[in-house]
From TrEMBL, chain A:
Name this polypeptide is given: Electron transfer flavoprotein subunit beta
Any GO MF annotation of the entry: electron transfer activity
Entry keywords, A to Z: Electron transport, Transport
Pfam family, one: ETF
Organism of origin: Geobacter hydrogenophilus
From TrEMBL, chain B:
Subunit structure: Homotetramer.
Species annotation: Geobacter hydrogenophilus
Pfam entry (one): Acyl-CoA-dh_C
Catalytic activity: a 2,3-saturated acyl-CoA + A = a 2,3-dehydroacyl-CoA + AH2
Cofactors that this protein relies on: FAD
A Gene Ontology molecular function term of the record: flavin adenine dinucleotide binding
Span of domain Acyl-CoA dehydrogenase-like C-terminal: 458-549
InterPro entries tied to this protein: Acyl-CoA-dh-like_C, Acyl-CoA_DH_CS, Acyl-CoA_Oxase/DH_mid-dom, Acyl-CoA_Oxase/DH_mid-dom_sf, AcylCo_DH-like_C, AcylCo_DH/oxidase_C, AcylCoA_DH/ox_N, AcylCoA_DH/ox_N_sf
Chain ranges of the Acyl-CoA dehydrogenase/oxidase N-terminal domain: 28-140
Acyl-CoA dehydrogenase/oxidase C-terminal domain segment(s): 249-412
Family according to the record: Belongs to the acyl-CoA dehydrogenase family.
Protein name, entry field: Acyl-CoA dehydrogenase
UniProt keyword Oxidoreductase present: yes
SUPFAM superfamilies registered for this protein in UniProt: Acyl-CoA dehydrogenase C-terminal domain-like (SSF47203), Acyl-CoA dehydrogenase NM domain-like (SSF56645)
Amino acid sequence: MKILVCVKQVPDMESRFKPDGSGTWFEEADLAFRMNEYDEYAVEQAVQLKEQLGNEPEVTVLSIGPDRVNEAIKKALAMGCDRGAHIQDPAPQGKDPWQIASIITQFAQGEGFDLIFTGMQSQDRGSAQVGVLVAELLGFACATTLVGFAYADGVITAKRELEGGIKGIAKLRLPAVVTCQLGLNIPRYPTLPNIMKAKKKEILAIPVADLLKEEAVASTARFYPPARKGGGIVLEGDVGNLVEQLYGILKEKTTVLR
Amino acid sequence: MNGNLLNGGEFLLADTAGMEIFSPEEFTAEQKQIAETTEEFMKKEVFPNIDRIEDKDFGFVVEKMRQCADLGLFLAEVPEEYGGLELEKTTNMLMIEKVAPAASFNMAFSGHTGIGILPMVYYGTPDQKERYLGKLSSGEWIGAYALTEPDCGSDPLSSRTTAVLSDDGRHYILNGTKQFITNSAFADLFTVFAKIDGKHFSAFLVEKGYEGFSVGAEEKKMGLKGSSTTQLVLDNVRVPVENLLGEAGKGHKIAFNVLNVGRLKVATSTLGMAKGAFAEAASYATERKQFGKPIGTFGAIQEKLADMVAAIYASETVVYRVAGLLDSRLATLERDGDDYYERYQRAIEEYAAECAIAKVFCSEQLDMVVDEAVQIHGGYGYISEYAVERYYRDSRIQRIFEGTNEINRILIPTMLLRKADNNGSTLWELVRKAQAGVATETACTGEFAMAAASIARLKQLFLTVLGAAAPAKEHQEVMLAVADMIIAIFALESAVLRADKTIAAASMSKQDLLRAVVTVLVFELSNRFQSAATRCCAYALKGEELIELLKRVATLTACPAEGLLVAKHKLADAAKDVGRYSL
């Protein structure tokens, strides 16, 4: 079995973001980058499947971006992936999800993957498009927002998180794409010995121009901070009165009590 | 390898231009990942449970220590043939920095991986390593180190613990009391120092299960309350002769050699703690409002934040410069041969003065940082619910660990002078030149040429004052003042070298901050140097000579520091913006 995991490197979400000069993205200088949280679930699940199958599957981890994304690739290798593919792109933020998906598809077509793991979405752009687009372009089955994963005899049993807290079970035959959600697993810490061993694993370097065949279908018009909201409401009075006020607010302004 | 790797202490005699330093901006992807694994572990498993640790739940501490072992965090300095990783010192320091904000847990961690394991790594026989090293690096056993005694602290060779060979020649029988032993409540193996026949200072590997070995009650401490510290009582403890560590009578080598890197590790711990305390202060300064606005907008608080940032930048630079020096020298060693660790020790000893400088400088920066962090919190800083209260208490001992800062200060010029005596007369030649008024030039150009010129003047002045004060060197007060001059030069030079090395690749806003931090440090450290030089002159000289030299001190340390206020505002604003140290 050949498995692909797609990971993105995103800024630390605790950073303070400012629009950049172009006004269509945020200023990246001086931000700390790390692997997209959802992609960590994807890597973990891929490695768990590899272990379940007696280490037979080969797991490739792919990331698109400038040189710094090698850090995310190396983390995935230290978690247990076998080889990396760095699609070299100095400015991936300028590409829309369609282009990103088509780049991944171009890479995947030559490789013959049976199963592709992605995060449910990225923490920075949050489009949640790339996984499903890759599935469509490759003609693979697809299940999104996985909170449970089981594999046996060529069939994936995927537990999906649906709207309103409902869960759904889907069964997929390989080849397939699955996108991973919070709660699917607890990603392992890369251990120090594995971090050092991962240094020897292969990382392919492929210029993005070799794989990019598509024009963008969407563009970012503007990136700006949200309008400042007024401060919170401070309720005053005795406890009974506070409860009534709070009850009123919850009933009128939220869906909690409907 | 760079071609101009300086010997220990040589930074004082050489031009800053062309000096290579390792700076944290150069960490590799692997080093960053190791830091991330350590930091994530601490964030998820340890920091949320600080209260449990501070309440001395040692079962929990041991559980977390075992998890550290599972992640390989104990392997940094273990030889490869025993499953270790033999990582660079820079990597090792990076790990310690991440553990350090949980200062009590760091005692368990660093006590185990440092003084717990290293004596065996350096001096253990293959049989001893076979028996114990695997258990220690896997966390199955925890290690500890027992040197201090109730009446023997700064002078460890005055130890009263004795070892006597049994009649059958199979055991050493140990008797005595050891004091302030870290990890003792849960440690399984202790490196215990004792004098064979009351004369030959030696080290022994003592298992906690040996008959006659007992652990005293927990000390009630000012800080590090979650760290186990007790007496050990050795009452006719029979230690197999195979557990003599190193040669009989050579215990001083073991005791002192682990101290060099130990000092750098204390420096690193204080760096990590300073960053932790600073994050508390910076975020509090943006949240707390008085007179209708966040207190961090007031100059009184901004000044504190800026000084703290500059102190942390200098500490960080010093720690990784020294770690980088050690790595560069260790990288030149042939790995093969039985004498590897002997050569390894010598390589580290070369920078014993630098390790001591780092320990003194960084631990005192931490004291300033925690003090101001409490001050920024106002009355809340005195309340235990706020983390700064703990940082404040945990800081104080760092100036006492691994040799008090006074002992370390005296070591710094002592080692330098000893080297000068051994290596011919370069130092004294330079002293004579400086005294004759030959101005020290620097070939430094570029952005920080002015700062480098300041450093060159400080070096010249140092040599001049040293020459004048040398006849009074038997006074410790004089040596302490000389040490302060050396420390100021090393810290300032490190910061300028790092800023110079990294500014070209930095973003515009970062470049601004680097200029600001250099402005603040040139001002601050020149002033500290000036104070020490003046003190040194006053102690050692009199009459015309004193007056003349003080004039030179005043002239050569003068530092216009234009733009100091703007520089501090920039540092403070940037720190408030991210809510932590991020230079």
